[in-house]
Write a structure and sequence with these properties.
The chain is α/β, with parallel strands linked by helices and 475 residues long. The chain has 19 helices and nine strands. The chain has two domains: 137 residues, DNAb Helicase, Chain A (Orthogonal Bundle); 250 residues, P-loop containing nucleotide triphosphate hydrolases (Rossmann fold). It has a nine-stranded mixed beta sheet with strand order 3-2-4-5-1-6-7-8-9, with helices on both faces. The longest helix is centred in the N-terminal third of the chain and has 30 residues.
């Protein structure tokens, strides 16, 4: 494999089609409107000859300003910039004008130039891979693999030409077809199994969405996301659960415990008197083993790592319907972002997860831990302002949901006892206990941002003993 890469690197100089570059520039000189055929995807840096790239840039700037781009105007601009000699002088501009065979093939010339540019970039990535893998022995092989994956993904996404402006009438048939599929019950949304949440989300999670589930510690983010993963898997949906906080065994115990009617720690330390627990656990094991739910508990995962794992899961199951990341704050970003600080790190990660959702065509649910600033205020219900210092999460996310349990904060408070009379103290404690009882088992899921719908709240039931969420009507 290295020999093939070295051979490819040596032939990098051959990945240049100067004839196509000159023919395109000549066609543009002959008819300035030729630029319209390639302007959507072609850039000056795509030209193998830097002189040709400079000529293309100046011509594009002139045409963009509504001015004529010909040999004389180009000569004047390059002379004033002192770069006429660098591009080959007036003689080269004249040769470009004479190289225009036909403007009909201009788009083909542009595609050829663009294709050669991508091939040169691929060779450069191969060279870098050879250099780093053979020289940096202090970095393990998986990091090299992730870096290569990230470079290739960046090359693919950053260089994808858009489809340009599309007449609104052209997109209407796709909308009508989607409406007809919805009418027949063929919806693209994936139900989460929490009926009120699915109603609020117009059916469930949509392919390509980035969903942020944020909360303070102990609110139950992992429990809710794990319940969502199980609900999806029971529908036959393939789910990848990327866990950066808990191990796969701990998550599996959490899945088993409610079905056994015990807490997760009772599975870890089985009481000798409960002889039937292991037998019942074997039955639950058989039930859960058939679910298309994959768990990756690798530490310090990057977006590139999750992408590679997702592709592996998709290859195994022939599909991938949802990715859940627990949690975003424990992911690792690129070295530059890590050095610049937390804000830049989170921004890079959230943008990477959004790109992952779009590329793989499945929703990505990323858990996010809110700062302790909430604890210092009277109203502890989270809001979008609590994400302001967390990179560009709010901007990148299609849906932002906050999990909040009032009962968690309604703890007995006796610190003010000395400043109160007996009656005042007992009245306050009694009211607090009543409020806690009313809030017991109630969890609010606050949809603070919904790109395709209205914000609102969903009420779920939370079993505090088993750490399980369910639909409120099941209480």
């Amino acid at each position: 494999m290295s020999d093939a890469l070295i051979s490819a690197a040596k032939s990098a100089a051959s990945l240049r089609n100067l004839e196509a570059e000159q023919a395109l520039l000549g066609a543009m000189l002959a008819r300035n409107t030729t630029l319209e055929k390639v302007a959507r995807y072609l850039r000056p840096e795509h030209f193998a000859d830097p002189a040709n790239g400079k000529v293309f840039k100046v011509m594009a700037d002139l045409i963009g300003q509504g001015r004529l781009a010909d040999v004389f105007t180009l000569k004047s601009i390059f002379e004033s910039d002192g770069e006429l000699a660098a591009i080959g002088g007036v003689g080269y501009l004249a040769r470009l004008a004479g190289s225009a065979i036909t403007v009909i093939n201009a788009e083909d010339y542009g595609r050829t130039i663009y294709d050669c540019h991508l091939r040169r970039q691929l060779v450069a990535i191969g060279e870098q891979l050879i250099s780093s893998a053979s020289g940096q022995h202090d970095m393990d092989a998986m990091r090299h693999l992730e870096a290569a994956e990230q470079s290739l993904h960046g090359l693919g996404t950053n260089n994808l030409p858009g489809r340009g402006a599309v007449a609104v009438g052209k997109v209407m048939p796709a909308i009508l077809a989607g409406m007809e599929r919805s009418f027949r019950g063929e919806v693209s949304a994936i139900p989460t199994g929490y009926v009120d949440l699915d109603w609020r989300l117009s059916g469930g999670l949509e392919p390509g969405q980035l969903v942020i589930l944020a909360a303070r510690p102990a609110m139950g983010k992992t429990s809710l996301s794990l319940g969502m993963a199980e609900n999806l898997a029971r529908q036959g949906k393939v789910v990848l659960f990327a866990s950066l906080e808990m191990g796969a065994e701990e998550l599996a115990r959490r899945l088993m415990a409610p079905k056994l009617g015990v807490a997760a720690n009772q599975i870890k330390q089985v009481d000798r008197q409960d002889k039937g627990l292991i037998a019942r656990a074997m039955g639950v094991q058989q039930e859960l083993s058939g679910l298309p739910l994959a768990i990756d508990d690798s530490p310090a995962q990057t977006c590139a790592h999750i992408r590679a794992t997702a592709r592996s899961v998709r290859a195994k199951y022939k599909r991938l319907d949802c990715i859940i990341v627990d949690h975003l704050g424990r992911m690792t970003a690129g070295e530059n972002a890590e050095r610049r600080g937390r804000y830049e790190k989170i921004t890079e990660i959230s943008a990477g997860l959004k790109a992952l959702a779009k590329d793989l065509g499945c929703p990505v649910v990323a858990l996010c831990q809110l700062s302790r600033g909430i604890e210092g205020r009277e109203d502890k219900r989270p809001s979008l302002s609590d994400l302001r210092d967390s990179g560009s999460i709010e901007e990148d996310a299609d849906i932002v949901a906050f999990l909040y349990r009032e009962s968690y904060y309604l703890k007995d408070d006796v610190k003010r006892r000395e400043a109160e009379g007996d009656q005042e103290f007992y009245t306050r404690v009694s009211e607090r206990q009543e409020a806690r009882e009313r809030a017991r088992g109630v969890a609010d899921l606050i949809i603070a941002k919904h790109r395709d719908g209205a914000p609102g709240s969903v009420v779920l039931h939370f079993d505090e003993d088993r750490a399980v969420f369910s639909n409120m009507e099941r209480r």
